[in-house]
Specification:
GO biological process, one term: tyrosine biosynthetic process
CATH superfamily of the largest domain: NAD(P)-binding Rossmann-like Domain
Pfam families: PDH_C, PDH_N
Catalytic activity: prephenate + NAD(+) = 3-(4-hydroxyphenyl)pyruvate + CO2 + NADH
GO molecular function: NAD+ binding; prephenate dehydrogenase (NAD+) activity; prephenate dehydrogenase (NADP+) activity
CATH class of the largest domain: Alpha Beta
Bound molecules: 1,4-dihydronicotinamide adenine dinucleotide, 3-(4-hydroxy-phenyl)pyruvic acid
CATH topology of the largest domain: Rossmann fold
Structural class: alpha/beta
CATH architecture of the largest domain: 3-Layer(aba) Sandwich
EC number: 1.3.1.12
């Protein structure tokens, strides 16, 4: 049975997340109506194929009747007003949102909406550090968790429809309370964002000759610092109560580390302990598609800086019959070549290396 009953999904807010939802639902055969406060942003999402602009009320009648579900993909502080409007006006029968915090919108919807049970909060655990419809990807949610946060008053239909949307876009739905969600994302998303931003901020005023030496390590650590400061100010403000204890713990560790650095003799065991803690924490992170973490083996290939080389390398790796699990591309400093790191499952590396050598590639490492 189709939980959406063959009806439309309305996406309000056609930025990065909303347009990605629209693209994925459209690809899955769902009729998607789109709306955004900015007409030019809406037009761009339509042009990209994320759905059709929501017909004006009293228009030609195409798509008449409430959408099965509204997916509200606007900044956190705007969620409750938009959810209230789409439900009260009859634009949608039920509503969910995708905001990165859940206690704030859930509380505000309860205060403002006549029947708050028609709303269920949710959050796809996938995103990018760039915003707007042009950053959207149809497969953004593929294999990623999509948290759904019902409470005692939530109508089952709201949950069923939100679950259906999560599954249709390829995500892995999971249920928890809004408070549990906010505590979890404080640890795995919001505090990491602060750490990335503060570290990247250290680079802002640094002399050019220092920043020029930066490699993939600092780039990895600071990637998410490129996120939209307006959105992240809203996220951190809304989730301050859950983010603060994580940062308190970090401050304690940083203080211990600073003290250890003052004394080379007594300091080393503390440094070692803190660095080992980093190894332990990192090994708990899920691997690709949220699966159990797998250690991959890396095959490093030198690639000339010429058009078509990467395409040829990927074709040759494919011809070797080895599945490439992940890939990174780095430029070798001062040389007209790049280093392409191909991650494969342990045991597959010899086969891949031999096959690539046979096809004329130079391997490193
Ligand atoms: N950026 C990310 O990686 C992720 C963001 N989220 C959440 O998704 C939501 C949207 O974030 P993004 O797509 O990144 O932002 P975005 O800035 O790319 O898109 C937001 C869109 O909402 C529109 N909008 C704002 N107020 C509106 C209103 N009252 N009515 C209609 N449209 C309105 C804006 O014009 C804009 O096009 C946020 O709540 C965010 O917390 C969730 C997962 C990942
Ligand atoms: O880029 C990443 O790794 C992210 O973690 C992006 C992200 C940003 C905000 C969210 O609410 C969820 C995911």
């Amino acid at each position: 049975m189709d939980p959406l009953e063959g009806r439309s999904v309305l996406v309000v807010g056609t930025g990065l997340v909303g347009t990605s939802v629209g693209l994925a639902l459209t690809r899955a055969g769902v009729d998607v109506r789109l709306a955004d406060a900015k007409p030019e942003i809406l037009a761009e999402a339509v042009r990209l194929g994320a759905g059709r602009a929501e017909p004006e009320p009293g228009g030609d009648g195409a798509g008449r009747g409430p959408a099965a579900l509204a997916v509200v993909a606007v900044p956190p502080e705007a969620v409750a007003a938009v959810v209230g409007e789409v439900l009260e006006s009859g634009r949608a029968a039920y509503a969910t949102d995708v905001a990165s915090v859940k206690v704030l919108p859930t509380t505000q919807v309860r205060e403002r909406v006549t029947d708050p049970g028609r709303y269920v909060g949710s959050h796809p655990m996938a995103g990018r550090e760039i915003s707007g419809p042009n950053a959207a990807l149809a497969d953004l949610f593929e294999g990623r968790p999509w948290v759904i946060c019902p409470d005692d008053g939530t109508h089952q239909q709201a949950v069923t429809r939100a679950l259906a949307v999560a599954r249709l876009v390829g995500a892995v739905p999971m249920t928890m309370t809004a408070a549990e969600h906010d505590a979890a994302v404080a640890l795995v998303s919001h505090a990491p964002h602060v750490v990335a931003a503060l570290m990247a901020g250290r680079l802002a005023g640094a002399p050019g000759h220092e920043v020029r030496l930066a490699g993939p390590g600092v780039t990895d650590v600071t990637r998410i610092a490129s996120g939209d400061p307006e959105l992240w100010t809203e996220i951190l403000t809304a989730n301050a109560a859950a983010v603060r204890p994580v940062l308190e713990g970090l401050r304690t560790d940083l203080d211990r580390l600073m003290t250890a650095l003052e004394s080379p003799v007594t300091g080393q065991p503390v440094l070692r302990e803190l660095l080992r803690g980093g190894n332990d924490g990192r090994s708990r992170l899920p691997g690709k598609h949220g699966a159990a973490h797998t250690e991959f083996v890396t095959v490093i290939v030198a690639v000339d800086d010429r058009p078509g080389q990467l395409a040829r390398l990927f074709a040759d790796a494919g011809a070797a019959g080895v599945n490439v699990e992940d890939v990174r591309i780095e430029h070798a400093p001062g040389q007209p070549l790049g280093l392409v790191e191909l991650d494969v499952r342990p045991g597959a590396e010899q086969e891949l290396a031999a096959s690539l050598r046979e096809r004329g590639w130079t391997l490193r490492g």
